[in-house]
Amino acid sequence: MALTILYRDELLIAIDKPPGLLVHRSDIDRHETRFAVQLLRDQIGRRVQPVHRLDKGTSGVLLFAFDAETARNLGKQFEMNAVQKTYLAVVRGWPPESGVIDAPLLRHHDDYGGAMPQAEPQAAVTRYCRLATIELPYEVEGYPTSRYALVELQPLTGRRHQLRRHLANIAHPIIGDATYGRGRHNRFFQQQFECRRLLLACVELRFRHPAGDELCIRAAPDGDFAKLLERFGWRG
Predict the structure, then answer these.
(1) Which residue has the higher pLDDT, 218 or 28?
(2) Are 182 and 92 in contact (CB under 8 A)?
(3) Is the dihedral of CA 216, 2, 114, 126 positive or negative?
């Protein structure tokens, strides 16, 4: 498969990661044979180093460095929460128009098995804004209609599965989330709209380029996510 390249220069490269693709090899998904690192390396003929990760089910902007010094520079920005990350998600229900979720999280294993549980929760903060809503004439959880919303999310910290866990914590889980979501709503979207993916996408990264200038890289949702936005009248 050919990966969509969003940006490239002599130091770094960014792609639009499709849903269902791991960034690199995982001990948990041992059966997987395709990884973003490998695919991109084969596609451009150069070694690359991922400087952050997206969950397997999440699509969107994924950043790589061409050399160790650039990887350290960018990795430090992510560690210091100096990178502004913006996501779009479709959630169950209608959350408030805007707000901040400030809820510490215990460390969990991620898609790569790289985190061990710990006793003390870590600070975790997510800012959100409701962009659009829809009410569908279908009974999913005992109500005659079902409500969903499109939200913009900005994680101000970088915890494992932070967005998915925070939205579940406020009773507005992301559609398609098999771990923290609602099975009835996930199945409803699969059956009614043929949408079988996690409806979460990283649509923008804004950070300081190692050369000194601010850089903003964007990726609009595509595929099943884009089709659903179109169907709900949420495009644009």
Answers:
(1) 218
(2) yes
(3) positive
Q: Which among 55, 111, 177, 224 is annotated as catalytic?
A: 55
How far apart, in whole angstroms, are the C-alpha atoms of residue 225 and residue 195?
A: 8
- List the structure tokens of 27: 């001990």
C-alpha distances in angstroms, 212 versus 50, 59, 72, 129?
A: 20, 27, 15, 30
Domains and CATH numbers, the chain: 4-231 (3.30.2350.10)
pLDDT digits (tens, 9 = 90+) for 196-216: 999 999 999 999 999 989 999
Mean pLDDT score across all residues of the chain: 93
Instruction: Confirm whether 55 is a catalytic residue.
Output: yes
For 95, the token pair is 């959350």
pTM (predicted TM-score): 0.93
